[in-house]
Amino acid sequence: KSPCMPWHTYLVLVLLTATAGLCKEPGFTVLFFLACAEVVLRARWRHFFSLLFWFAVVGGVRTWYVGGTDAGFGYVDTPIRYMDFKLTRTLSYLYQHAYYAKLLVLPWNQSWDYSYDALPMLHTFDDVRMLAIVASYVAVAALAAHGLRVCMRQPIVILGLGLTVIPFIPASNLFFLVGTTVGERLLYPCTVGWVLLIASLGSQRRSVAALQWSPVRG
Asked: For the chain, give me the number of helices (H) and strands (E)?
């Protein structure tokens, strides 16, 4: 039976999450990240539902306070939302995810302004940029599968992936519209998880290499 977390611990978590969210929206995902960690690493469902409840409360209060989740930006700032075809909007948003992944892995050729047609939209499945979308999501799925496989021995892998993906959700345009096409500043929290993930994978590779080259005794 999992121990009951004191009420003041939840209060501190909620206050810290609200403070982080007031600095930038990804801060509101802290409670959701902790809830996912409780399930994956400890299987403590009581803590999971408690953290999920407070995450919903904090998110609901934030949505009520700002009057909803709609971002009132014009066509120049967010042209995708003004497209008539749902396929165009969906593929273009998915390509933004791939572009964010590219910036996280190879942060070169950055720009201070991605408005208007800085990233041309995708209209059909035969666009060659679909390969970037598929590669990005396959990579995330592969890392998630590997992290779940070794989560008991090396929890840092799945934690690093969670810290990379979960803070990105508010900027993904999946649940509510964001008032920017691409914002490199939105990747700042994700870089923490990315560094942990790269370090953990590098450590595993080094351990495997050391075992392979170690002299056989006896």
From this structure: 7, 0
CA separation (Å) from 63 to 17, 79, 141, 178? 15, 24, 30, 14
Sign of the dihedral through C-alpha 198, 190, 20, 158: negative
Task: Report the amino acid identity of residue 105.
Answer: V
Within 10 angstroms of residue 103's Cβ, the number of other Cβ atoms is 19
Residue 190 Cα distances to 78, 101, 130, angstroms: 22, 10, 23
Q: In whole angstroms, how far apart are CA 105 and each of 28, 56, 171, 199?
A: 24, 31, 17, 14
Predicted confidence (pLDDT) per residue in 2-32, tens digit: 566 677 788 888 899 888 888 888 888 999 9
140 vs 101: CA distance, rounded Å: 10
CA distances (Å), 75 to each of 68, 79, 80, 92, in order? Answer: 20, 4, 8, 15
Quick one: 6 exposed, middle or buried, by C-beta within 10 A (0-12, 13-18, 19+)?
Answer: exposed
Give yes or no for a contact between 80 and 116, defined as CB atoms under 8 angstroms apart.
no
The 10s digit of each residue's pLDDT in 116-174 is 778 889 999 999 999 999 999 999 999 999 999 988 888 999 999 999 999 999 888 88
- Residue 3 CA to residue 53 CA, distance in Å, equals 18
The gap between the terminal CA atoms of the chain, to the nearest Å, is 46
